[in-house]
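Extended Data, panel c. Modelled sequence:
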Amino acid sequence: MTTASPADTAAHESVATPVSTSVTSGASDRWAWGLVAVGIIIPLLGYVVPDIVSDYRLFLMSTMMIYAIAVLGLNLLTGFNGQISLGHGAFYGVGAYTAAILMDKVGMPYWTLLPIVAVVCFVIGFLFGLPALRLEGIYLALATFALALAVPQMLKYRWLEDLTGGVQGIVLLKPEPPFGLPLSEDQWLYYYCLIVMVILYWAAANLLRGRSGRAMMAIRDHSMAASTMGIDVARYKTITFGISAAYTGVAGALSASAIAFVAPDSFGFFLSISLLIGLVVGGVASLAGSVIGGIFTVLVQNSSQSLSNFVKSDLGLPFDLSPYSVYGILLIVLMYVMPTGIAGGVAIAWRRLRR
C-alpha cells in the first residue's frame, strides 16, 4: 500500500478529513506520549498503594488495552475506510485460537506469536475482502454477520477437536516475566499489552498520515470520485480489510495469553457487537476514540451488575434492572448526549471552551 499514481496524490490531498488530521496532530501526539508515560508508572504504584493498584485492576487495564487494539482494527475498516463489519469477533477468535494452538500443540513461546497471528489473520481478511468487493452497506454487514455466526460453530467441529479442543477449548499458562524481572504475571502482562498497543497505534497513525491513509478516507467519503481520480478502490479495500483483520487477530492472541483459556463460545456474535458499540461510543474515525471504546467496553461490561445492584439496593428505587438493561440505558444516554462519540464530544466541548 505504499505506491500511488500522481492522480492518487492529487486526490489524497483534497479529501483528508478534519477528524483524521486532528487525531494525528502534534498536540495529540504530545497527549498520547504523556498518557503512555503515565501508563508505565501505574504498575509501579502497586508497591506503594497495593489496595488501589492490585493485580486484578492491572488485569482489567490489560483487557482494556486488548479491546482498544480490537476496536482500532474495526475503526480502520469502518471509520477510516467506510466498510461496515458485524463480524470482527470472528477475526478476534481466529487470532486467539491461532495463538493458543501454536502455544499448546507446537510449544512456541507467546512472544513469537504475534507476527504469525497477524499474517494469518491478514490473509483471511484479505481473502474475505475479495468477494466482499461486490457488496456494500447493509449487504456487506450481513456477509460479515454470517462470518461471525459461522466461525464459533466451525471451531466446534469434531474433525478439528484435536486442534481446537472442541467445546472444551484450550487451557494455557499465563506469560511469565522474562529475564527474571521482579514483576508479577499481571504486571508483566500489563506492560506486554501496553508495548504492543503503543506499537500498533503508532503504526496506524503513520499509515493514516500517509498517502495510503488519505486514499482509504477518500474511498470512505466518495468511492466513485476516488476511483475517478485514479485510486485503485478494489486494492485499497481488500488490503484495508486484511490490515483490520490483522489488528483484531493480534488483540485475540493477546487475549488468549491474558485469560489463559480459549473456547468457541467466547467469540460469539455478541463480541462483534461489543466491538462495534465500543467503536461508536468511543468515536468513529478517531484513534483516541478507539482507546476510549476499548475502555468503555470492558468497564461497562464489568460494572453493569454493580450499577444494577446500586439502583435497586442503595438508591432504593423500585426497579429490578438487569445488567443488560443498565448497559442499554447507558448507550442511549451517551448517544443522545454525544452523538459523535466520547472523543468527538470532548473535542467539541474543548473547542467551545477555547472560544
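DSSP finds 16 helices and two strands in the chain. This feature is highlighted in the accompanying rendering.
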